[in-house]
């Protein structure tokens, strides 16, 4: 991926992280009940939208995540996390999530429809 894509991504990443803080603050109160699992998945996956497009639909050269097989997404994220696959940025990102969180994120994106 060209360096310029990464640079244009960073301000959006920061904006997303700030927005994420607001979302977490707003949702912390009612993160119980049936929707708690879905909310957790959304919060964990929100960061990914910055680069992989809204709802993981893909953005420029960055691949779409929506509607992909959960097992494939898990395997790729684990490979980035463990360093058996090298990317420009995904290694650092994947290391920030536990194995259980990777499973939640992969299942979430697999459930989203590819437009
Ligand atoms: C800062 C931008 C950025 C963010 C944030 C980001 N990604 Fe990525 N992602 C990339 C890029 C760029 C690649 C291509 C591999 C590389 O260069 O690291 C990629 C590749 C991937 C791939 C491999 C896709 C394929 O077809 O091989 C998966 C899976 C993935 N990302 C999942 C995620 C998930 C899940 C999140 C959120 C936890 C996330 N990414 C957050 C930029 C990002």
From TrEMBL:
One of its GO terms (molecular function) is metal ion binding. Pfam families: Cytochrom_C. Residues 28-113 form the Cytochrome c domain. Residues 1-28 form the signal peptide. InterPro entries: Cyt_c-like_dom (IPR009056), Cyt_c-like_dom_sf (IPR036909), Cytochrome_c_Oxidase_Subunit (IPR050597). Transmembrane segments: none annotated. Keywords: Electron transport, Heme, Iron, Metal-binding, Signal, Transport. This is Sulfide dehydrogenase cytochrome subunit. It comes from Methylohalomonas lacus. The lineage of its organism: Bacteria, Pseudomonadati, Pseudomonadota, Gammaproteobacteria, Methylohalomonadales.
């Amino acid at each position: 991926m060209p360096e310029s894509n990464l640079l244009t991504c960073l301000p959006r990443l920061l904006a997303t992280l700030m927005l994420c803080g607001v979302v977490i603050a707003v949702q912390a109160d009612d993160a119980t009940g049936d929707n708690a699992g879905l909310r957790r998945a959304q919060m964990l996956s929100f960061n990914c939208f910055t680069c992989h497009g809204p709802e993981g639909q893909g953005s420029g050269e960055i691949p779409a995540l929506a509607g992909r097989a959960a097992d494939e997404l898990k395997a790729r994220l684990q490979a980035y996390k463990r360093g058996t696959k090298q990317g420009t940025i995904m290694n650092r990102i994947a290391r920030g999530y536990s194995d259980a969180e990777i499973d939640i994120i992969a299942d979430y994106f697999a459930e989203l429809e590819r437009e």
